[in-house]
Amino acid sequence: MPSHTQFMEEHPPTTKLTELAGLFLKLGFTGFGGPAALISMMHGEVVKRRRWLDDQRFLDLLGATQLIPGPNATEMAIHIGFLRAGWPGLLVAGVCLIVPAMLIVLVLAWAYVRFGYMPQAGWLLDGIKPVIIAVIAQALWELGRKTVKSPLIAAAGITVLILSFRGVNEVALLFGCGLAVMLARNYRRLKPGALAVFALPLPGIGLPVIGAQVFSLPLMLLYFLKIGSILYGSGYVLLAFLHADFVVKLGWLTNKQLIDAITIGQVTPGPVLTTATFIGYLLGGVKGGLLATLGIFLPSFIFVALTNPLIPRMRKSAWLGGLLDGVNVASLALIAAVIWQLGRTSSNIQLDIAVMIISLVLLIRFKINSTWLIGAGALFGLLKASLN
Asked: What's the per-residue H, E or C state across 296-307?
């Protein structure tokens, strides 16, 4: 078997931009099933079919996306584009993965604004809601099994969950948990007095907004830039940030609108974070949808460009590994807190619980694709509408 170096010599990292664009446009239109499905599709295309990368390089890139904020699947596309065609490839691959989903979501957002408050559309979304909660819960279970590797990680996650219910800022919880796990694992490496650095007061990361605010496009853009810059763990943790910022702090969305936005992100192909496109359209029309998309995805392009040359060292760092494990378990705890809050908003909690349990069984036991379940939820919603 040829070595990694031999492989790269036989397959130099140069690819036409049109070929990159064609691949990632295809993935953007057909990539149903969330980030794990998208990454699997990329592996099949760039490793098995096109042989642009070998397995080791692909795994290196995947590990690097876990160490930086942002959506993993989108960042994988950006990394691949950067390796194959430099800066133009970075932009082409990322944009071509995002744009198809963004356009589809804009159309659905228009339809939601036009018809979303009619009884039929309302029942449609009500039918999907418990399925979405089940999909998120199943992802939480799968990610949790891989993340909770020790009693230390389990204790950190439980602590974050408790503090989240007590109203502690979600960004502080993410970074605080990451630092705590990193230090607990590596305290023997510290020199005397080094802990004093971590005791210094840190500047606030959240934007200083308290209570409901008058909507403005620049403020909305700032919040999506913030979320895109600190979104660790999984696209599903987006729930926690959107709820904290747009429902609680700003008062621009209701819980129902939030779960509807998450639903749209799930039922469309491409990155789940195009949920931001939907919210941006609800708040500010087409211009709002475009700005929200720009805000939440722009940090990923910057982080990939900065970290790509550092990947070989990043994946071997004991310090960054501890930080990542702490951030990931905090992300999962925040997801669990938001699932609880959203589940309590049901209009028919007994029926929703039944649908959610059935969906979980189908997801976990029978490995049914979440897209099919979401479609079944939509049909269930339509059935409820026809009986009322």
From this structure: HHHHHHHHHHHH
